[in-house]
Amino acid sequence: MAKQFDVVVIGAGPGGYIAAIRAAQLGLSTACIDDWKNKKGGPAPGGTCTNVGCIPSKALLQSTENFEHAGHGFADHGIEIQGLSLNIAQMQARKEKVVSQNNEGILYLFKKNKVSFFHGAAAFVKSSEDGYHISVNGDKAETIIGKHIVVATGSVPRNLPGVEFDEKLILSNTGALAIDAVPKRLGIIGAGVIGLEMGSVWRRAGANVTILEALPTFLGAVDEQIAKEAEKLFRKQSLDIRLGVKLGTITTNKNGVKLEYTDSEGKAEVAEFDKLIVSIGRLPNTSGLNADGIGLQLDERGFIAVDGDCRTKLPNVWAVGDVVRGPMLAHKAEEEGVAVAERIAGQHGHVNFNTIPWVIYTSPEIAWVGKTEQELKREGVQYKAGVFPFAANGRARALGDTTGMVKFLADAKTDEILGIHIIGPLASELIAEAVVAMEFRASSEDIARICHAHPSLAETTKEAALAVEKRSLNY
Predict the structure, then answer these.
(1) Pfam families, from UniProt (predicted)?
(2) What is d(CA 444, CA 454) in angstroms, rounded to the nearest whole number?
């Protein structure tokens, strides 16, 4: 007889494993199905984020940032290094260890919270009075039944039409994270988060990196002032960023990849690379679910259609994360996973899309929450802005990293914070205060009057809040 559960979660990425754990915490019998495999064929829960996304990319970013500091920054501190070299095999081995530790951590959390884990590919079979029958195609084929189903199958990289990923010359994020030798010439299509982060990794390691972007503006979703500062700094780091590019033919040969394109002025160009990373977005991963067979509705873009509470058209079937509308961010998926588990348990789950932070883990880091200045202008919102540079911050000077700024945007009448934008050291950590402030609908004056430790990078946040009323104290 098939095992029965109150909740069956399909996918153990950030949305799925968190949904399963929260459901189990709420007293619901819970199963989670996931088919990611490690190199030995064993389970590797954590989805794209843990296996070929957020976690391994941050490991490589940290390794190469250390390498760059050792080669270019340590001398200022009186630290002299001779014979510096980069062992790519060791760097990749460390990355794999970090990934494995996260995989094992999730399996431990399942055991701790009494979540039944099934390793294999899941698909809808049918519905009955008992619930939905889900097949698990793993080491052994079996079927389990869930009263509620949460689909959290994530996303897959989008390829260029007619140009498939071979993960040797034409790389998705998977191949980009597994390069075993520094390419002399690395091409990247797409100047988004993945493109910039991978470009930073391999540029620091010694590659000549060219980034080709179809849009005429750099980081169009970022506050314009922050984006201009980022573009200036990245170009100074020798990232060759080419905007307004129209791609032509892409061919591979024994020497690498040949790419024909038209530049922003309409001039035909040819570029040759040892490897080419394609980072032009991601697509919802719904293949193999038997969505059509069960009547699970997809929207015109291929995402699972859900309402504001992540309910699908099928009773007791939910979907979260990259497979539904909204930003493809791990922490957005986690929040939806928690909210859905709580709704299943009869509680009132909550996700505020207006306070979801965004981060680009380049150097300098870029992080923001809320509205950009250009959005406020388009919407006709009257606002005040305050900016404070890291160059005027004592802790940043001591760190030796004074690039960037913190920017506040507040309602001109009520002073409620509408957006906070940061480019600079540890922006990914500093943005947390901004999210808390906006979630509690704080004013810039609230932050300006809160005592911040000295010396700290967080003082830039306080000073930017003071700058809204043009009364910053250190600039």
Answers:
(1) Pyr_redox_2, Pyr_redox_dim
(2) 20
